[in-house]
């Protein structure tokens, strides 16, 4: 009985701490004027070694084109469970994508990285268009992308 | 039915299909542009390793290489944190220039495949492609029907300028349009997953790699084994990621290559479905087959022209139709009027009769003679009387709307309860006056159908005669019937005589070439006409127009006719008496069947007297120098050699190949038919080359010419009827 109570309490604390330790994060991605069709984007999280952790957002509705988001596609294995409920419309040239979601505190300031892969029809695919460390300090700072991304920021 | 379908789908689809085809034509130049900038010669001997080895030093930040179907090579790289792309020479590995996709072409591509409306637009584009397919197929069937059969599909086309343009262009473009529509539809079906997914499986991403120091790319064994012209895409491993690999796509399939050992770690071949899809894609876009792309583009460019001419043809046809109001359903009608008409004028008389009977309380149904025999007699249970109003076409043939009447009538064996009356329309100056009406009457009588009234005839659309017939009909039916037919007079244009050239007074054949123009200060345009069309002229005080063949076309800015003065002829006397400055009232009646057909075959023109008029018109406009041989007969070279000076000019500038003029009132008297027999072997040679004949002149001359030509044709096992059936013998006879 005592054991059960202890377990329950421990579990409650765990759940509460998990609730407390989740934070709202807003990811803002502004695209360049690259003169092409709408871009597909995958925003995901890796550890310091670059190993995939979880998908944060996928812009672009047609899953048959997801393989062009090379880095993310390989890491996530393109399993629907990885991106289910985390997709939206593709982003047109020059437009900004802004998504807000809950992110566990455990990812912040622990060497994890945010990555963005991009792809546009009939144009090149950009693996790691953006790679930024996920830190409290880095919040609100603009990072330039290598490919179609003009500026990427995250804010808590 | 086919025509209705073709017209309506054409009208509905016009705008959509025109956008689709114009954008398609613009996109079709992409492959050739792409090819022009690519240096493709000799790439088969270069391996991927060889080229990438060269690129390693000039592009340290290289990330990806692509080879387009036309052979141009694009290198994608990152330099100072920025991405870029260059077009490179595959032999030297040197940059040709920066590469970027043209935003204009991207826009055209989106307009072409989705009308800039994304998914709903793609559905629209697919529907347009489907309509285009239907239009192409129905159009091809209509053309085959018009020309007789599929075997005769390459026969010369007759008709108005617009009709010829529509048919001719359509005949050339049909294959290109079919291919574009079918391949486009297939691509749409794949997009909308109506066809199974074509994509081959992805190669398995290697679970583990060697992870050693990466080898220099030029030394990788797998890349050495792939020739450059097999490559589609090579993606380099991510910088400083030793666990990453090279991903390669070739024409054979796709796979991954270890960056330290150079081994192919996994490979997935392209399956047949994908090969088929890629082939269809190539056929549609011309990517990798630039010449086909250009041909399809040219084919697509005909679509706006086809739409425009198609709409005009439809509009003209629609305007010339007489609409019958209060047309009772056949089942409840007590009176039926059948119309046999070629040029729609008999429909006007039928309408007058229809309205008068309607007014007298009858339930009337009016239809074409062909529609009548399409149904069984019991479809008309209440009919008491049947009227047949029919013209005659050519030499006693059935007019268009009665073409199937007699043959299908043979199958009706029962004798109906109703009685019939036939009224023939024609022109007494023709020997076969109302011949077809007579034939219909005889056939029905022979079948023992009961007669309401014996055959009557109307000469030259006479309203008086028609009204008299109406009285007879009224008496027979026991009702008062007054038929007042007011012929729809075409709107006339006033023209002024600007020049006349007189001939033939000495040989008692006073003839004049008259040239008319719009009077000064006139704010209307000349009506549109071509040489061979007819001009209707109303002599003052006459209600009936006389028709003359035109020797000029409206583009010349003048209207030219050749008139022989008949002492008792009202209109010819009026015309012959005109002096320069006098004016006439005239309207145009198209005569599209009397035209030289398009093509390179030689043309033989035969005429006598004023029959030279349209023939001179054809020669005058023979700017492409088709071989034209003219046979013409007059009376005396000193007096009535019409157009002598012009014809000699045309001989010199090659518009006319041979001039055979013969005269009947000189010592070596001769007629055209004599000259034809004399030239038998030469004419047979021309016929062997596909020659077509156009004959214009009096009826007697025309029949003599026909007899003479039958003689000429006999050794070839042909006769004039054979030529007529092939559309190679046309007459304008008066």
From TrEMBL, chain A:
InterPro entries on file: DUF2271
Protein name: DUF2271 domain-containing protein
Stored Pfam families: DUF2271
Signal peptide: 1-22
Lineage, broadest ranks: Bacteria, Pseudomonadati, Pseudomonadota, Gammaproteobacteria, Alteromonadales
Alphabetized UniProt keyword annotations: Signal
Organism: Colwellia ponticola
UniProtKB/TrEMBL annotation, chain B:
GO molecular function, one term: flavin adenine dinucleotide binding
TM ranges: 123-144, 172-192, 289-315
Keywords: Flavoprotein, FMN, Membrane, Transmembrane, Transmembrane helix
Cofactor(s) essential for the protein: [2Fe-2S] cluster
Domain FAD-binding FR-type: 488-597
This protein's GO CC annotations: cytosol
Family annotation (CDD domains): SiR_like2
InterPro entries: Cbr1-like_FAD-bd_dom, FAD-bd_FR_type, Flavodoxin/NO_synth, Flavoprot_Pyr_Nucl_cyt_Rdtase, Flavoprotein-like_sf, FNR_nucleotide-bd, OxRdtase_FAD/NAD-bd, PepSY-ass_TM
Limits of the Flavodoxin-like domain: 335-474
Name of the protein: Nitric oxide synthase
UniProt source species: Colwellia ponticola
């Amino acid at each position: 009985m005592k054991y059960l109570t202890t377990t329950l309490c421990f579990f409650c604390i765990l759940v509460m701490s998990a609730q407390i330790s989740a934070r709202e994060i807003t990811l803002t991605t502004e695209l360049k004027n690259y003169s092409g069709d709408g871009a597909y984007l995958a925003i995901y999280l890796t550890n310091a070694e670059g190993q995939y952790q979880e998908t944060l957002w996928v812009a672009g509705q047609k899953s048959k084109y997801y393989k062009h988001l090379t880095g993310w596609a390989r890491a996530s294995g393109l399993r629907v469970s990885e991106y289910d409920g985390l997709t939206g419309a593709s982003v047109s040239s020059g437009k900004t994508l802004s998504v807000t979601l809950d992110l566990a505190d455990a990812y912040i300031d622990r060497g994890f990285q945010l990555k963005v892969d991009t792809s546009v029809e009939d144009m090149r695919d950009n693996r790691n268009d953006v790679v930024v460390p996920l830190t409290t300090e880095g919040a609100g700072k603009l990072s330039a992308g290598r490919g179609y991304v003009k500026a990427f920021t995250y804010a808590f | 039915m086919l025509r209705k379908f073709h017209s309506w789908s054409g009208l509905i689809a016009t705008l959509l299909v025109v956008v689709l085809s114009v954008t398609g034509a613009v996109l079709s130049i992409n492959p050739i542009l792409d090819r022009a900038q690519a240096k493709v010669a000799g790439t088969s001997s270069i391996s991927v390793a060889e080229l990438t080895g060269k690129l390693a030093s000039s592009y340290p930040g290289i990330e990806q290489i692509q080879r387009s179907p036309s052979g141009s090579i694009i290198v994608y790289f990152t330099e100072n944190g920025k991405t870029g792309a260059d077009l490179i020479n595959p032999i030297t590995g040197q940059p040709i220039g920066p590469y970027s996709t043209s935003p204009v072409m991207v826009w055209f591509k989106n307009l072409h495949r989705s009308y800039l409306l994304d998914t709903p637009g793609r559905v629209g584009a697919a529907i347009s492609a489907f309509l285009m397919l239907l239009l192409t197929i129905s159009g091809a069937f209509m053309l085959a029907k018009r020309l007789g059969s599929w075997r005769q599909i390459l026969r010369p086309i007759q008709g108005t300028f617009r009709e010829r343009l529509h048919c001719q262009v359509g005949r050339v473009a049909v294959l290109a349009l079919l291919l574009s529509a079918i391949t486009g539809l297939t691509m749409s079906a794949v997009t909308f997953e109506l066809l199974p997914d074509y994509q081959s499986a992805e190669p398995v991403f290697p679970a583990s790699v060697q992870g050693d120091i990466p080898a220099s790319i030029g030394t990788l064994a797998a890349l050495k084994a792939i020739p450059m012209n097999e490559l589609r895409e090579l993606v380099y491993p991510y910088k400083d990621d030793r666990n990453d690999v090279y991903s390669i796509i070739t024409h054979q399939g796709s796979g991954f290559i270890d960056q330290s050992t150079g081994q192919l770690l996994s490979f997935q071949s392209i399956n047949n479905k994908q090969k088929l899809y890629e082939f269809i894609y190539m056929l549609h876009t011309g990517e990798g087959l630039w010449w086909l792309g250009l041909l399809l583009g040219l084919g697509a460019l005909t679509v706006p022209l086809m739409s425009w001419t198609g709409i005009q043809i439809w509009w003209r046809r629609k305007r010339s139709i007489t609409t019958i109001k209060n047309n009772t359903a056949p089942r409840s009608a007590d009176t039926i009027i059948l119309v046999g008409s070629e040029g729609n004028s008999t429909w006007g008389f039928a309408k007058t009769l229809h309205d008068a009977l309607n007014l007298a309380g009858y339930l009337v149904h009016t239809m074409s003679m062909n529609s009548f025999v399409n149904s069984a007699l019991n479809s008309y249970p209440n009919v008491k009387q049947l009227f047949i109003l029919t013209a005659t076409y050519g030499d006693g043939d059935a007019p268009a709307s009665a073409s199937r009447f007699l043959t299908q009538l043979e199958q009706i064996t029962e004798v109906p309860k109703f009685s019939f009356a036939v009224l023939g329309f024609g022109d007494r100056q023709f020997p076969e006056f109302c011949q077809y009406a007579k034939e219909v009457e005889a056939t029905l009588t022979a079948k023992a159908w009961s007669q309401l009234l014996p055959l009557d005839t109307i000469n030259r659309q006479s309203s008086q005669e028609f009204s008299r017939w109406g009285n007879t009909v009224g008496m027979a039916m026991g009702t008062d019937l007054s038929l007042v037919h007011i012929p729809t007079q075409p709107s006339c244009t006033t023209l002024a005589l600007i020049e006349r050239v007189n001939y033939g007074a000495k040989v008692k054949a006073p003839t004049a070439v008259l040239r008319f123009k719009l009077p000064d200060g006139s704010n209307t345009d000349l009506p549109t006409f071509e040489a061979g069309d007819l001009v209707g002229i109303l002599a003052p005080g006459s209600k009936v127009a006389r028709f003359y063949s035109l020797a000029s076309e409206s583009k010349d800015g003048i209207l030219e006719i050749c008139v022989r003065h008949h002492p008792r002829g009202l209109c010819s006397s009026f015309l012959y008496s005109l002096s320069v400055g006098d004016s006439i009232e005239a309207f145009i009646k198209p005569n599209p069947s009397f035209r030289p057909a398009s093509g390179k075959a030689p043309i033989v023109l035969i005429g006598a007297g004023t029959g030279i008029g349209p023939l001179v018109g054809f020669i005058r406009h023979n700017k492409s120098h088709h071989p034209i041989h003219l046979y013409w007969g007059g009376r005396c070279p000193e007096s009535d050699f019409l157009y002598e000076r012009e014809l000699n000019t045309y001989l010199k500038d090659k518009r006319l190949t041979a001039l055979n003029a013969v005269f009947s009132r000189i010592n070596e008297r001769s007629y055209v038919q004599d000259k034809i027999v004399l030239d038998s072997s030469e004419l047979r040679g021309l016929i062997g080359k596909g020659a077509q004949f156009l004959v214009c002149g009096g009826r007697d001359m025309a029949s003599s010419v026909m007899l003479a030509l039958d003689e000429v044709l006999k050794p070839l096992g042909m006769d004039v009827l054979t030529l007529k059936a092939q559309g190679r013998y046309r007459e304008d006879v008066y």
